[in-house]
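Long-time lurker. I teach an intro course on protein structure, and each term I like to show students one example going from raw sequence to a predicted 3D structure in token notation. This year I'd like something fresh instead of my usual example. Would anyone be willing to generate the tokens for the chain below so I can use it in lecture? Attribution to the forum is fine with me.
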Amino acid sequence: MAKEIKTDILIDATPDKIWAILTNFDNYPNWNPFIKSIKGDVKVGNTIIVRLEPPGAQGMTFKPKVLAFDAHKEFRWLGHLIIPGLFDGEHKLALTDNGNGTTTFTQSEKFKGILVPLLKQMLDGSTRNGFILMNKKLKELAEQK
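-- Reply from a regular --
Happy to contribute to a lecture. Here you go:
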């Protein structure tokens, strides 16, 4: 079973400015309402430690593998709940330069595994809401002069 959540927001800032905010992991607790922390050496192939706290749901800490870390464009990881195949999530943060000083920020996640149907309501609710809240806070921060 598979499911994808995808959200977009238009930000009046350059990809460089947004990337600087997204990769300042030490500052996440101060502004990010969804991804509370990212720790470790963020490089493709490495395992990092991520703490998620979706609104209205229990938080979780997991250790995903970094799949992409392309400066000013994309940060993507793959995490598993306990064991691969049970509940896997490929999380993606992407920046699209609109060529006019604005950037489209896309946050998405592809979920696979036997637990996806059981967790569908949580994914459509608190997880999607967490994406939206984070997107809005990122926009606020990036658009500050």
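Some talking points for your students: Residues 116-142 form the longest helix (27 residues). The mean pLDDT is 95.
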